[in-house]
Structure formats: structure tokens, C-alpha cells
Amino acid sequence: MADSGIPGGDVATPAEHLNIKVTDNNNEVFFKIKRSTQLKKLMDAFCDRQGKDASTVRFLFDGTRVRPEDTPDTLEMADGDTLEVHQEQIGGC
């Protein structure tokens, strides 16, 4: 029998880097990060660029709050996904 020419184990692997959009509805910033990078780096970089204090905002992905130790892999993010930034709201009676 002839070789089929299909290499064994040729499975599409996800790209090592992702392009992630971060928006606060006024500004959009694009970041290229590794799948294993903690999102704290991205969150801090966004706050630095926008002049915001990281403790005054929260980041959401698909409606779920993002923790600093999360990574794109743990959140199952794909290339082109968006993180939303909202003002932290405290209190209420």
C-alpha cells in the first residue's frame, strides 16, 4: 500500500499569541499577549495608558469578572476577543 502522505499527529495547534482588544467604551487598546501570560500585565498596561488606577476599574470577559491571575488559556479566549473595562462601583443602600 502507498503512503497516504498525511503525517501522523498533525493537529492544528492554537497560535502562541493572541490579539486582545480592551475597551472602556471611550477607548480601544489592542494587546498582543501569550496564551500563558497573566492578564494582570494587560490590565496594568491598560490602566497606565489611560491614566486610571487599577483599583478603580474592573475587567470583564463575556460578563465574568477577570482576576489578575487569569490567563487567556484559563478563560478560553480566542484571537480577537474583547475585555470590557468598567468603573468599580462601591456601596449603595
UniProtKB/TrEMBL annotation:
Organism field: Aspergillus avenaceus
Signal peptide location: none
Source superkingdom: Eukaryota
Ubiquitin-like domain: residues covered: 16-92
This protein's name: Putative ubiquitin-like modifier
